[in-house]
Amino acid sequence: MNPYLIDTPAVVSFSGGRTSGFMLRKIIDAFGGTLPDDVRVCFANTGLEHPKTYEFVEAVERNWNVPIHWLEYTGPKEFREVRPDTASRRGEPFSELLLHMKVLPNPISRNCTAELKIRTIRRFVESLGVKEHTVAIGLRADEQKRVSRTRNDRSWEDKVMPMAEAGHTLSDVLEFWRSQPFDLDLPGGDNAYGNCVGCFLKAKPKLLRIARAEPHSFDWWIEAERRASERGGNPQGARFRQDRPRYIDLLWIAKNQGMLFSEHDEHDTIDCACTD
């Protein structure tokens, strides 16, 4: 049985990265080159992805002739469907979420992933009158820790991880994209800028590298912590991670202290459900 021939009705959760793009291609091929009408591809936009990610999502839709539903959180139990020219690019969905949260998302409470992605996609599917459906998630065979945690995560109902079942790894993904006429062209050639560019779950050296190259990527995160500090009356400053400086301080470090950490030191990266 081909694990990419998923049960329908189904949703393919496409993050805008190479891994989930690889999974999408395999699913399309498993269905003979054209997805059935009851298999929908969804890209949940936080408004904080890198511009190259948006270009990649458009390229996938155009080159593979597959409709992609661009979805955005607009409030508790609410969403909207947009197109590339109307999609948020300044963190609007994430900002809307923070208006309804008492504290900032953090490594312990990652409501951003749950609301902006998982539940937004589910609400879209349910709006079509579909209640029971399969969700295909792009986790590879070499991500067993994440695969195991996702299997036990009740946020994703009726989830399948065909890449893990098929034994496909990062090397398979990279080899596949080398053979394609288009690719994800993020800065640095790796996934440092993947998903939300300034995500608090990324390793500190990775964030410092981003701050050094594209300091404007920190603007939204700095403003979010400032507003949270004012709202909570916290003189020490509310932050996404208590074990790190605020984003404004990280930006200062990046500008003034040079590279104090290995570019490839990712020991404090924390996995989440935002797949590659």
Question: What would you say this structure looks like, in words?
Answer:
The protein is of the alpha/beta class and about 280 residues long. It has a domain at about 10-190: 3-Layer(aba) Sandwich (Rossmann fold), CATH 3.40.50. The chain is about 40% helix and about 10% strand. The chain is built from ten helices and six strands; from the N terminus they run E-H-E-H-E-E-H-H-E-H-E-H-H-H-H-H. It has a six-stranded mixed sheet with strand order 4-3-2-1-5-6, sandwiched between helices. Helix 2 links the parallel strand 2 and strand 3 (about 70-75). The protein is globular. The two termini are about 25 Å apart. About 40% of the residues are buried. The mean pLDDT is about 90.
Give descriptors for this structure.
six-stranded mixed beta sheet, Rossmann fold, 276 residues, single chain, alpha/beta, globular, 10 helices, 39% helix
Write the layout of secondary structure elements.
Blueprint: E1 10-13, H1 18-30, E2 39-44, H2 51-64, E3 68-75, E4 78-82, H3 92-99, H4 111-127, E5 134-136, H5 144-151, E6 159-160, H6 162-166, H7 170-178, H8 204-213, H9 219-232, H10 247-256
Parallel strand pairs: 1-2, 1-5, 2-3, 5-6
Antiparallel strand pairs: 3-4
Helix pairs in contact: 8-10
